[in-house]
Amino acid sequence: MRFHFIRGNATSENSELDREELTRLQAFNAIFLDVQIAWVAGDMGSAAYALSPAQYASLQVGLALMKARYLRNEMKNVRIQSTRCVRKSQIRDWHERDIVFKVKAEDRRIHLDTGNVVKENLDEFSEVWTFIKQGSLHSDADFNHCPNCGEAVEFKKSPLCPACGVLRNSGQHGWVLSKITQYNEYSFGSSAESKDEATPTTRASA
Questions:
Q1: What separation in angstroms does the CA of 85 have from each of 9, 14, 101, 183?
Q2: What stretches of 45-182 show up as alpha helix (H) in DSSP?
Q3: What is the C-alpha separation between 67 and 64, in angstroms, rounded?
Q4: How far is residue 27 from each of residues 18, 24, 68, measured CA to CA in Å?
Q5: Where do the domains of the chain lie?
Q6: pLDDT tens-place string over residues 174-200
Q7: Closest Cα to residue 8, out of 103, 130, 123?
Q8: Does domain 3-135+175-185 have CATH number 3.10.250.10?
Q9: Which of 108, 139, 135, 137 has the alpha carbon at shortest distance from 121?
Q10: Rounded CA gap, 54 and 50, in Å?
Q11: Which residues pair with 21 in a beta bridge?
C-alpha cells in the first residue's frame, strides 16, 4: 500500500465554530483522505461518490497523463494539520464552500519502471478545495442508503444507485468536490479570511 494516514483530530483555525460547522469540516476531511487514497491507488472510482462528474473526469485524466509518463504517486504519513473555510456563498439553492487543507505528507512521484523517485515534497502544503451542495445545509444523505429510494447501497464503490439510478455525486444529496485550487493560485480577495502570514508550499507536481 502506497498511502498511509496518521489519524489525528479534525481541526479548524476558527475556535468559535458551532458543532454543525465542525461536523461539516470533519466530513470534508474524510472526503479529502478518500480522494488521496483513490489518487494513490490510480483510480478515482472509490472516491467518485464525493466528486462532481467534472472533477472526477479531470482527476482521471490527470492519472492517465501521469501513467503515460510512466509515473505513479506515493504518499506516506499524511496528516491534516488544519482545515478552515475561507469562503461561503449561495446562489439560489446551491451552496458553496472553499476549504483550505493544510497538510503534512511525504509526497513522491515514482518512475513505474525503475522505481526511482522523480520528484518529492516532504514539506507542508496547502490546497483550496471547493465543495458544492444543493438544498438544505442541515440534511446530508448517508453513504449506505440511496437518498431517493432508500435502497441499501455502498456509494463508496459506485455513486450510482443500482435500484433507481440516482447519482450520489450530483450535489443534490450531499457535499461534493467541484474544484481543487493550488493555494498560491487562489484569490482570497476581500474575504473575511486571509492568507496565512507564511505561505505554504504546494505539493509536488508530475
A1: 17, 9, 9, 13
A2: 53-68
A3: 5
A4: 14, 5, 33
A5: 3-135+175-185
A6: 899 999 999 999 988 654 444 553 344
A7: 103
A8: no
A9: 108
A10: 12
A11: none
Q: Which three cell numbers stand for residue 81?
A: 494539520
pLDDT digits (tens, 9 = 90+) for 53-89: 999 999 999 999 999 999 999 999 899 999 999 999 9
Quote the pTM value: 0.82
Pairing type for strands 71-91 and 3-5 reads parallel
Nearest Cα to Cα of residue 78 among 29, 38, 28, 33: 33
Q: Measured between alpha carbons, how far is 138 from 140 in angstroms, rounded to an integer? A: 7
H or E element in which residue 32 lies: helix 19-41
Dihedrals φ, ψ of 162, to 5°?
Answer: -70, -20
Residue whose entry in the numeric block shows the C-alpha cell 450531499 = 174
Cα separation, 39 vs 47, in Å, equals 9
125 closest CA partner among 99, 155, 100, 103: 103
Residue type, 24: R
